[in-house]
Amino acid sequence: MANLDGKVAIITGGASGIGLAGVETFVAAGAKVVAGDIQDEKGQALQTRFGDDKVLFVHCDVTDMAQLEGIMGAAVDHFGGLDILWNNAGHGGTPDPIEELDLDAYDQTMSLLLKQVFAGTKFAVPHMKENGGSIINTSSISAVCAGYAPITYSVAKKGVAHFSKLAAAELSKYGIRVNAVLPGFIATSIFGASLGLPREQADQMAAMLVEAGGSMQPAGRVGKGEDIAEMAAFLASDAASFITGGEFLVDGGMTVGPRHSWDESAGGPLLDALGITPEQAEQMRAQMGN
């Protein structure tokens, strides 16, 4: 486990999913954490669970610039500084394809997924520039491959990844490191929420994904929030002091290649083009051998 003793961190979207796992992991590693979220009941429960000497919950809509700037000040006022910012809050955004794209929904998605990463970083810099710090941004495997998420979400997440590289260059003069984490198929409520399900049902769907989604990647299981949180904690720690501007895939091997590259029971491009299943191909080979 990473060592975050003495460090103060902000994690947006900290009341559930990957962000909640981040709060738990960072506290276990010794950090004091400000958890920002719009889910007040879950956030307050989180603060009560750990105590406000370890976790402070702050209501924060990351698309509201005053609230986003305010959470930076809350960390400094309550814990005495700011060493780590994890820009993690997000949502599936608009599912519209290009031809049917609602441009207002596009703007809302970009504000939630991309603008807030720019803004969160901007607001954190004044508190980090004297002593340095680490900024981690949650991107996605949809930033590198088509077919994993709607187009607006995917483009925003590509922007997050590239922003992290550019910000790492620009902020290096202050000793501020910036990296992006690209999660794969992680069992959180974001999938159900993207389908319009109420929060409770979305949480239940996340549990179902844990049971049913393991065959989607070479690792043989669905990702968990703590898989991403452990990577973020490492990047936030002094052990990663030589790492900045990176894009870190944490996807169980999902992007290594098409399914047939790691699953012997799957077909391949040639079989797919011919409309032949692996079983039929094996039968043909057996007949030719006779």
Determine the fraction of residues in helical runs and give it as a percent range: 40-55%
Strand order of the largest sheet: 3-2-1-4-5-6-7
Mean pLDDT: 90
For the record, give the distance between the C-alpha atoms at the N and C termini, rounded to a whole number: 58 Å
Query: How many domains make up the 3D coordinates?
Result: 2
Describe the structure.
This protein is α/β, with parallel strands linked by helices. It folds into 2 domains: 8-256, 3-Layer(aba) Sandwich (Rossmann fold); 258-290, no CATH class. Helices cover 46% and strands 13% of the residues. It has helices at 17-28, 40-50, 65-79, 103-128, 151-171, 190-194, 199-212, 225-236, 269-274, 278-289; strands at residues 8-12, 32-37, 55-59, 84-87, 133-138, 176-183, 247-250. The protein has a 7-stranded parallel sheet, with helices on both faces. β2, α2 (40-50) and β3 (55-59) form a beta-alpha-beta unit. The longest helix is centred in the middle third of the chain and has 26 residues, at 103-128. The radius of gyration is 21 Å and the shape is elongated.
Give me the secondary-structure topology.
Layout: E1 8-12, H1 17-28, E2 32-37, H2 40-50, E3 55-59, H3 65-79, E4 84-87, H4 103-128, E5 133-138, H5 151-171, E6 176-183, H6 190-194, H7 199-212, H8 225-236, E7 247-250, H9 269-274, H10 278-289
Parallel strand pairs: 1-2, 1-4, 2-3, 4-5, 5-6, 6-7
